[in-house]
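[AMINO ACID CHAIN]
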Amino acid sequence: MPEQAQYAAAAHIPLIKSPSLRVPRAVELPPDLHPLPDDVNAYFVYPFTLEPHIITLESARRSTLAAHVARREAYLLARDDEKERRKREALRKIAPGFEPSAAPLVPTPIRKSTSAPAAATNMGGDAEERPKDVMEDLVSKLEMLESSSA
């Protein structure tokens, strides 16, 4: 009992009860409450009656979501196509015949037929191929001048 001697001085001090603290009311049990049986395994039987209903709802929800996704994708694709079409129309106003996805437009030079006498002298019927290089073109023209002056 040395522990009681430790608190002996506090045994005669009056305790002040806080007005904010109160003792809770006793719990009243409902009259139709029945106790659980000793074996509760009977309460854990799942009948699986909700499974078809949930599966049907889930498949309907998924098909609805897929339809919404498809509609959204089609809308976004149509919007992008419309934006591209407007861009092409604006570019065609500036440069008719311009197609952004195609190769750039390159002007083709229209040459006067300077090799007509040479082609006329060629009796084999094979037309000369046009020179593809500037130097080859210069050489062929110089040969034509030499042959015409000689």
About this structure: The CA atoms of residues 94 and 139 lie 40 Å apart. The two ends are 147 Å apart (CA to CA). The chain has a mean pLDDT of 80.
